């Protein structure tokens, strides 16, 4: 058998299908774009949904990719099995309505067995097929696959609910009897069973049915192919590895962990081996996730990253690594994956800084968690409960990052158990919350061919002209049907013209609006929205006032004023993007944008907040480019030439062979298909309205330009003028001085007020402290006083303690419908067992509240001031 590296296997797969007419799709970001149904990209086909449901027609119906993916549904199993990972690569080839079984099955066999390619021994390959899919079985047999190497399995039907579905065929590799972990007569000892001998390496899905909302299976308008081959599994075969972890994808990470550990070695101890595997697996996922813009947090994707970091840190402690170490492994991940993912090494310093910050934070938290766990174990043993309750175990897991197995291990050492059922109940509640937070949108839409087969060319001319005469109607639809004439009383219609000046929404820029006019000058309808049809034409949504006919020609007029405002904001967005990179660092990536006519919104990935100083620098830098009067240059070129120009590309966008590049002098160059001004001076002025966080590691800036910026500044000027008038400042520039004088006056009044309050408190102290009550456990002073709040109660307690006026003090006050209660106990009585916390807990219910504190001082708050008298009475009862 050939010995191939992981990079050679990946490239060989892609090269094979490229030779068979497939376009190689780059690995998309792990963070899904415009897909609220997914937390992460979890398969190769996840990035192809728009092609399979017909919403977009690809330039080439044959596609292939090596897609990085994350699955987190059973993180706890990572390291315990031979092939379970959070991050993995899925090799795949896809056909969107092009080839089908007769092409894909021979290609799969050729790739696997041909000496020119993988060159695997055909005798070691086994196939499973869906029992009713006789055609697939015959094709395999025609290729020379023996009948006893083909198994029928009812599970060979791919169906994820509503959307494309169909039978599939899986390919297994026989790793030999030495890898068998089952007896010969075990029912799972066959290709497709749960065993270690037969390794599934490829799944070919024949997507030929629509699973409809009515739960029926209807033939697809176009049959598709979707395949998936796990790269890690294939590497384990070619590198003769018992598990995926003994391959060039993981071993360098395991060796580095050995060096970082306290003398631990991989393969020396099965328990340690799990820790090595968890660390190697998790650092890959963490590195790629952060590199693609996700950041640690307490929600969504950020929670997953935080959890992975914490699991890796805990497993590091098992190996004797008691300091931050994961961040040191980022460059190793980058070096392993450099051939296909060079961006990891390029961003290694930034990724490492994020991980280091999170590690440092968790190491402090971990110590707190250990302290809590030890306290819980002590309390449980004292109470003779016999187990740690599930809610506490889940708090350790959720708040402090303790895996349940770690809590179980610590508890077992102390001879107690965990309430597993209670823990699982809390876990289920959290999972339900997460599911409810996820969109209810369909995972993949039912395929529709209303516009899929419409392929006539339509040209966008809006870069140069905003109105045209004679735009011909190529097609029109109303009520989801293609019609020859759309009527005003039939509702909105969708229209494709031969050429159009109307921009279709894309890249954050909103669609143009405007009018459709007939050859008599009469208005036929209003264009309210423009989107892209599956084959890329601009699809206009029109509100009709007169009938609109297929084949007729109309004058199309874009709302010019609105369009020019959008242009200004779009160019300003490019300037803002570059300014953020320059000021905050090259790691800053666009995470979304919206370019409207009256404002722009720009989301970007950034770890931490943006200081006021940096925000001012960004705004100043954008305005400097506007005032430099830089001509805007647009170039259409091939994608490689664009990259050589230094053009910035977005992970979220797919680019064809020809791309449009927008160049703003030597300041910024980006891939962009949108509309822009011809010179930065047309923007006039740029003003940031707001900046803040909108998600885990995602910041948002909203800004305005031109007349909207003027309006904003004018509004602020009016506000300053009103403020000056209120402050009686002759000029606006004197406002700060006037405010300073007011602040000094306020401070002086506060000082006077505090002095008066102190005198009043002292006067009350003389009245209160004179009434000492004898109880069986010591002397007591208990009274209600009239002071502003808890601070004054504490001042009275300080006076009481310094003068040693009684053994116990209980004082209360009522302020604004609320009650404050304070208990103080002398040090001598604390030693005798009288604790302020016990007393406050006993009397606080009377004021409708609760509290706590130290043994010598405790306080409580409540919503029932009328209960103060009862609380004071109960204090005396408590001491008798």
Describe the structure.
With 880 residues, the protein is an alpha+beta fold. Among the domains are: 6-249, BirA Bifunctional Protein, domain 2 (2-Layer Sandwich); 459-558, Elongation Factor Tu (Ef-tu), domain 3 (Beta Barrel); 563-714, Threonyl-trna Synthetase, Chain A, domain 2 (Threonyl-tRNA Synthetase, Chain A, domain 2, 2-Layer Sandwich); 765-878, Diaminopimelate Epimerase, Chain A, domain 1 (Roll). It contains 23 helices and 35 strands. Strands 1, 2, 3, 4, 5, 6, 7, 8 and 9 form a nine-stranded mixed sheet that branches. Helix 6 packs across helix 7 and helix 8 (300-318) crosses helix 11 (348-383). One of its GO terms (molecular function) is tRNA binding.
Supply the CATH superfamily name of the domain at 6-249: Bira Bifunctional Protein, Domain 2
Level-2 CATH architecture of the domain at 6-249? 2-Layer Sandwich
The helicity comes to 25-40%
Report the CATH topology name of the domain at 6-249.
BirA Bifunctional Protein, domain 2
Oligomer: single chain
In one word, what is the shape?
Answer: globular
């Amino acid at each position: 058998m050939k010995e191939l590296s992981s990079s050679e296997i990946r490239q060989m797969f892609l090269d094979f299908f490229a030779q068979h007419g497939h376009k190689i799709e780059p690995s998309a970001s792990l963070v899904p774009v415009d897909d609220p149904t997914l937390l992460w990209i979890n398969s190769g086909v996840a990035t192809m949904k728009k092609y399979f449901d017909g919403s977009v027609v690809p330039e080439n119906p044959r596609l292939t990719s090596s897609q990085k993916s994350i699955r987190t549904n059973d993180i706890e199993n990572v390291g315990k099995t031979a092939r379970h990972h959070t991050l993995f690569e899925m090799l795949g080839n896809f056909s969107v309505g092009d080839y089908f079984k007769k092409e894909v099955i021979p290609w799969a066999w050729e790739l696997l067995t041909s000496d020119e390619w993988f060159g695997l021994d055909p005798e070691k390959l086994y196939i499973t097929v869906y029992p009713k899919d006789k055609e697939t079985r015959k094709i395999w047999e025609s290729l020379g696959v023996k009948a006893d190497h083909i198994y029928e399995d009812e599970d060979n039907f791919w169906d994820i609910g509503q959307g494309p579905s169909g039978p599939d065929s899986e390919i297994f590799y026989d790793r030999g009897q030495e890898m068998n972990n089952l007896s010969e007569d075990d029912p799972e000892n066959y290709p497709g069973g749960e065993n270690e001998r037969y390794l599934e390496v490829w799944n070919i899905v024949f997507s030929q049915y629509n699973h409809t909302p009515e739960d029926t299976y209807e033939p697809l308008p176009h049959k598709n192919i979707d395949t998936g081959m796990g790269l890690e599994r294939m590497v384990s075969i070619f590198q003769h590895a018992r598990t995926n972890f003994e391959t060039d994808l993981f071993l360098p990470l395991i060796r580095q962990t050995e060096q970082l550990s306290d003398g631990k070695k991989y393969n020396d101890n099965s328990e340690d081996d799990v820790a090595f595997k968890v660390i190697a697996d998790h650092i890959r996922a963490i590195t790629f996730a952060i590199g693609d813009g996700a950041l640690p947090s307490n929600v969504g994707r950020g929670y997953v990253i935080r959890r992975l970091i914490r699991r890796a840190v805990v497993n590091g402690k098992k190996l004797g690594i008691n300091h931050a170490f994961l961040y040191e492994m980022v460059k190793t991940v980058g070096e392993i994956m450099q051939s296909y993912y060079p961006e990891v090494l390029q961003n290694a310093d930034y990724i490492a800084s994020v991980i280091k910050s999170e590690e440092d934070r968790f190491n402090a938290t971990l110590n707190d968690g250990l302290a809590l766990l030890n306290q819980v174990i002590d309390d449980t043993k004292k109470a003779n409960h016999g187990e740690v309750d599930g809610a506490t175990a889940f708090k350790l897991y959720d708040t402090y990052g303790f895996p349940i197995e770690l809590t179980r291990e610590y508890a077992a050492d102390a001879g107690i158990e965990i309430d597993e059922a209670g823990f699982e109940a809390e876990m289920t509640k959290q999972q339900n919350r997460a599911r409810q937070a996820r969109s209810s949108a369909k995972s993949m839409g039912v395929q529709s061919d209303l516009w899929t087969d419409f392929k006539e060319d339509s040209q966008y001319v809006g870069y140069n002209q905003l109105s045209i005469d004679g735009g011909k109607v190529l097609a029109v639809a109303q009520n989801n049907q293609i019609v020859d004439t759309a009527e005003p009383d039939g509702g909105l219609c969708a229209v494709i013209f031969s050429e159009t000046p109307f921009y279709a929404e894309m890249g954050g820029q909103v669609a143009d609006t405007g009018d459709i006019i007939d050859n008599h000058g009469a208005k036929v309808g209003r264009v309210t929205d423009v989107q892209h049809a599956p084959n890329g034409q601009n699809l206009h949504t029109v509100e009709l006032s007169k009938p609109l006919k297929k084949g007729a020609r109309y004058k199309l007029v874009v709302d010019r004023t609105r369009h020019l405002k959008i242009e200004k904001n779009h160019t300003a967005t490019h300037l803002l993007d570059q300014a953020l990179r320059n000021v905050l660092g090259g790691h800053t990536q666009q995470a979304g944008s919206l370019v409207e006519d009256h404002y722009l919104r720009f989301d970007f990935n950034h770890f931490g907040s943006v200081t006021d100083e940096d925000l001012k620098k960004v705004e100043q830098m954008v305005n400097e480019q506007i005032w430099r009067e830089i001509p805007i240059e647009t170039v259409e070129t091939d994608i490689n030439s664009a990259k050589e120009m230094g053009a910035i590309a977005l992970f979220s966008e797919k680019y064809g062979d020809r791309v449009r590049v927008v160049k703003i002098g030597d300041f910024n160059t980006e891939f962009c298909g949108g509309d822009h001004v011809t010179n930065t001076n047309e923007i006039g002025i740029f003003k940031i309205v707001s900046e803040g966080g909108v998600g885990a590691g995602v910041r948002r800036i909203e800004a305005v330009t031109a007349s909207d910026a003027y309006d904003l500044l004018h509004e602020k000027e009016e506000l300053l003028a009103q403020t000056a008038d209120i402050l009686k400042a002759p000029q606006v520039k004197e406002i700060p001085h006037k405010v300073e004088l007011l602040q000094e006056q306020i401070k002086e009044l506060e000082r006077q007020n505090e002095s008066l309050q102190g005198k009043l408190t002292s006067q009350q102290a003389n009245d209160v402290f004179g009434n000492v009550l004898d109880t069986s456990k010591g002397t007591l002073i208990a009274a209600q006083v009239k002071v502003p709040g808890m601070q004054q109660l504490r001042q009275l307690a300080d006076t009481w303690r310094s003068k040693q006026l009684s053994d116990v003090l209980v004082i209360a006050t009522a302020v604004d419908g609320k009650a404050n209660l304070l208990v103080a106990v002398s040090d001598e009585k604390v030693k005798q067992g009288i604790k302020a916390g016990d007393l406050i807990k006993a009397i606080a219910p009377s004021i409708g509240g609760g509290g706590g504190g130290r043994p010598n001082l405790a306080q409580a708050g409540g919503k029932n001031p009328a209960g103060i008298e009862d609380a004071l009475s109960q204090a005396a009862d408590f001491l008798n």
